[in-house]
Design brief:
two-stranded parallel ribbon, mainly alpha, 2 strands, 206 residues, 59% helix, 9 helices
């Protein structure tokens, strides 16, 4: 993934337009999505595109491919929000000096025993606030975000699609109690259906 201060990372976090992140497994895509989510909620994405007051989690849909990645994304967002909701960040994090912000983030994290990942997310928010000339959101903002996270749409593509289908199940003639099958079961059913179709076709040719 792109590093702190790089043009690519700044463009991603500004989120002015659709963005594609290409990276291999384990390189930080889920972390990048989590950080963009925090920027949206904090009102620290591009001021030309997004509202200054931030976007409520109820209006954000964050999706990924696997349950593991979705769970990690929710955990990382919640971890940062829970910390930001309890106290105001030090004023040094709003400094125009990048080195001052870095040192302030390190001291803040060390004093609270938080992970380096949380420190990185907070520093990223501070960098974007400085870039856009905005103050960092106070704890009250993060408290509202925290209240909304329980019902936030953070999950997989198939779980989101299943939710949409369940809400329209009656109109679509579907059983609202339908379930999403696992990949192994899907492969087994696909093989069985393929073999059945081939067998029917062979019988018709005889």
């Amino acid at each position: 993934m792109t590093t702190r201060g790089s043009p690519g990372r700044a463009r991603l976090l500004a989120f002015e337009r659709n963005a594609v992140v290409r990276a291999g497994a384990g390189t930080g895509k889920t972390e990048a999505l989590s950080t963009v989510y925090l920027h949206l909620a904090a009102g620290l994405c591009s001021p030309a595109t997004w509202p200054r007051g931030g976007v409520s989690p109820e209006r954000i849909v964050a999706m990924t491919f696997t349950e593991k990645a979705a769970r990690e994304m929710r955990e990382r967002i919640t971890e940062a929000v829970s910390q930001l909701a309890v106290e105001r960040l030090p004023r040094e994090l709003e400094s125009s000096d990048e080195a001052v912000r870095l040192e302030a983030a390190r001291r803040w994290g060390a004093a609270r025993g938080v992970t380096s990942a949380v420190v990185s997310r907070v520093l990223s928010l501070a960098d974007s606030a400085a870039l856009h000339g905005r103050p960092l959101p106070p704890p009250e903002v993060w408290q509202r975000v925290a209240w909304s996270l329980g019902s936030a749409q953070i999950g997989t593509f198939h779980s989101f699609a299943a939710g949409v289908l369940r809400r329209a199940a009656v109109d679509l003639g579907l059983d609202p109690a339908f379930g999403v099958i696992e990949a192994e079961d899907a492969d087994r059913l696909l093989r069985a259906a393929s073999l059945g179709a081939l067998s029917d076709a062979a019988q018709r040719d005889v």
